[in-house]
Amino acid sequence: MTPPDHPLPLAARAEAFRPSAIREILKLTARPGIVSFAGGLPAPELFPVDAVARACEQVLSSGGASALQYDVTEGHAPLREWIAAHLAEHDGPIAPVENILVTNGGQQALDLVAKVLLDPGDTVFTENPSYLGALQVFRGYQARIVGLASDHEGLLPDALEHALATASAKPKFLYLIPNFQNPTGVTLPLERRLRIAEIAARHRLIVLEDDPYGRLRFEGASLPAVSALPAGQSWIHLGTTSKILTPGLRIGWVATADSRLHEKLVSAKQAADLHTASFNQRVVNALVRTPGLLENHVRELCATYRRRRDLMLSALEQHLPPGCTWTRPEGGLFLWLRLPGEANALALLSRAMEAKVAYVPGAPFWTDRPDAATLRLNYSNATDTAIRDGVARLGQVIAHEVSPPAPALA
Ligand SMILES: Cc1ncc(COP(=O)(O)O)c(C=O)c1O
Questions:
Q1: CA of 20 to the centre of ligand 1 (A)
Q2: pLDDT in tens, 299-320
Q3: What is the whole-number distance in angstroms between the Cα of residue 326 and the centre of ligand 1?
Q4: Atom of ligand 1 nearest to the CA of 108
């Protein structure tokens, strides 16, 4: 088919739709023979395939027709009840069951919240760096993103206070990933959660809390969700089964104590896709309601990911040249590395690929003034051997870059 002579006219809004820089990099890193620490994928060998097969069978044999029928936009009622109970058990009081909306993954929840809250030109506060998929959504709704200073313990409350005092326009919301953040792997400690909740409440600032990784804690005590703290207001909490069951079933949710906001989110979802797949919702409901299944599965994930994290940390210790620093996540899928001085992680990637190891350069995760020396490493989706070999190769590439061998004397 021949393409049209003139490009088809698009909406002004479409100018803001850009492909994810990471997706482009991931295409390159997916070549055979490359040890890839680039993607953000859960370990496929741990997917509960047999349990999913049994759940599908169970859903089809008991009321199969309703699983194949259109459904209400809010989501399958028993699944919403489970989500409300799950949040109450693990995160604190967040939202009543009638204010839970089942979405097509956490990503759609982000999109719906942005669609309902953001007008073009609105300001959004985020951690810096932050999840690229969220930045993409906010940019798509023509928001102005202001990244707030964050360190090895996440967002600095003083930076939030300062930004609120000096911002030219009041932000619509603060986007936060408090547990094992993507991309840095860091977790916001309780004192910071309390301060951020207090500051946000005082300024009547909405907190949009995104928590795909909270259940994947390998060590340390679980912390309450920022949305569930006593100072909390009508905040918004996003969750997903992508990292604790399988991402392919695409079951996520948005929970808020604000009923009016919930209704708007439901209408926005109705316009987008009517409802999340009836069958998938019932399959996930059958899985989470099988006694012990989710707990055992999460335990297995944590044990494996912990071992892989430990292997990666000790391999980094062993192979990386002095001057490199990295985070030590207590859970989740990623750690965040900084190369010494002015090194450029994007420029280094082609040499790393020649050495058959890949990572994601950190620059796209920054909202502005990217620190080009940063990069993200994923440890959940690599075997023990791949982690040892891959980090050793990465160490050689970095060492060569930051302290290249002296030129031979003539
Ligand atoms: C912070 C964060 N939020 C949301 C998502 C979207 O997850 P999903 O749409 O699979 O639920 C991801 C995926 O990696 C993520 O890292």
A1: 14
A2: 999 999 999 999 999 999 999 9
A3: 22
A4: 9
